[in-house]
Amino acid sequence: MLLLAVDTATPAVTVALHDGESVLAESNQVDARRHGELLLPSVDKVLAEAGVKLEAVTGIVVGVGPGPYTGLRVGLVTASTFAAVLGVPVHGLCTLDGLAYAAGAAGIEGPFTVATDARRKEVYWARYEDPRTRVGEPAVDRPADIAEQVAGLPAVGQGALLYPDVFTDARPPEHQSAAALAALAAERIAAGLEFLPPTPLYLRRPDAQVPKNYKVVTPK
Amino acid sequence: MADEPLVLGIETSCDETGVGVVRGTTLLADAVASSVDEHARFGGVVPEVASRAHLEAMVPTIDRALKEAGVSARDLDGIAVTAGPGLAGALLVGVSAAKAYAYALGKPLYGVNHLASHICVDQLEHGPLPEPTMALLVSGGHSSLLLAPDITADVRPLGATIDDAAGEAFDKIARVLQLGFPGGPVIDRLAREGDPKAINFPRGLTGPRDAAYDFSFSGLKTAVARWIEAKRKAGEEVPVRDVAASFQEAVVDVLTRKAIRACKDEGVDHLMIGGGVAANSRLRALAQERCDDAGIILRVPRPKLCTDNGAMVAALGAEMVKRNRPASDWDLSADSSLPVTDPHVPGTGGGHGHGHGHTHDHDHVHELSKDNLYS
Ligand SMILES: [Zn+2]
Fold first, then answer.
1. Cβ separation of B59 and A80 shorter than 8 Å?
2. Can you spell out the DSSP letters for A49-69?
3. What are A71-83's pLDDT values in tens digits?
4. Structural domains in chain A?
5. Which residues of A touch B (CB under 8 A)?
């Protein structure tokens, strides 16, 4: 097994190569405005560091969000295109699940929350029973509106740090890591579990308004 | 490098996901997935709707183009992609796909200019472009007069619209007349049954002191809307066909008049017309008439090659390969305001192994476009 994992759903541009047992190489940069520029050079660097050619990869792992759309699409279209050329499967995972898995590796066990920045004063978030078990679907909300649901729980992700009044017990990690995403995918492949298709979790509709009609025509 | 390079081109600058394959100046495939229907109810292109549609259509459209061309991806000499100008988020889907595609195949990547591609596409229809070529580009997004001594390296803007693009004016008038979106085709159709001399609408920027090659369609748009409103207010029926014909005549009269003048002033005996509005039947007819009178050879590609498509990007990419222009780097940006004077975005050669150090300073442009990269 040789997995190439990418995630651009958050400010992090993160890439990792995983052989099913451990991470061979990884690259993590945080720059919310340059996903498009940074991703391919990161992939190139990670492969070079591991001394592996892209053709050797047996599967692509991709974070499908939720996340701000423009950046999110960079990882998804890159993953889908690689998979199409290489003829290998592309395994979609919820980005928040990667953060939850990383939180487990960092020592969190019990119930907790993952929250990332959704901009517009909102967070993408989900609750977890444990690092591998999400409770329900991820959502996008104003922090104040979910205060009761997350009260008293530890919280990971940049969203937690941004709203300390609501997420009173913020813990690491702050940022997504493709290494964690790849490790989670390797575990799920070994266990024969399903993945998500490589399609984005937008959670919001496009901002677009149907314009009002021009003046009504007078004649009958 | 190959004399007739085999190049795949990807175009996602607006609402069409286009993938084309060309060999030299021969068109092999032109696959397009359009999201125009999704935009129709909004009366214009919604950037986020376009970007979402590009992501969905990208890989299937690439596959369709290769199948149509009957070639293997392994045999490609390069991958070209529209790097700009265009909608930032939409461009980024195509640029990211092109990079991944080129990287996975081990092929050079060429980030090219959308406007230069609109000109170069005519090579697929009428053979190699004469040098220089005068080009009139008219669409919903642009109205420009460009002089191209070398489509891969030297494109000079002579004039452009100072307000609305020509295609935008068609869309807006169609809206006033409640004809739906996009407005170009329906106005063209109705105008054929109307009298172009029925109403004398203003010709913008045609006074003796006005910029010779610039365009303005905003005043025309307002004049037409006012005329229609006055009719409605008076309780009279709006002669839709005459309005369409007279409005269209005003647009194409100015476009062709200025294009012919530019040809004469610059001593260029070829005029190329491209962009979505080049599909307009009256524009084609009047341009032909005026070019014939002036002894200018007119080149207009078939309508499908005039609207945004991947074949035009592949056509320019093939020319880049043929002329040994440096490939782009893996950190190529989607540049929503890529200047028309940059036919492509050459790399610095760092880590890509194709470039040879010929580079422009793009940083100032990037700073402008970065702010709207994230929705
Ligand atoms: Zn165009």
1. yes
2. HHT--GGG--EEEEE--SS-H
3. 999 999 999 999 9
4. 3-94+176-191 (3.30.420.40), 96-171 (3.30.420.40)
5. 32-34, 36-41, 43-44, 54, 68-71, 73-74, 76-82, 84-86, 119, 199-200, 202, 206-211, 213-215, 217-219
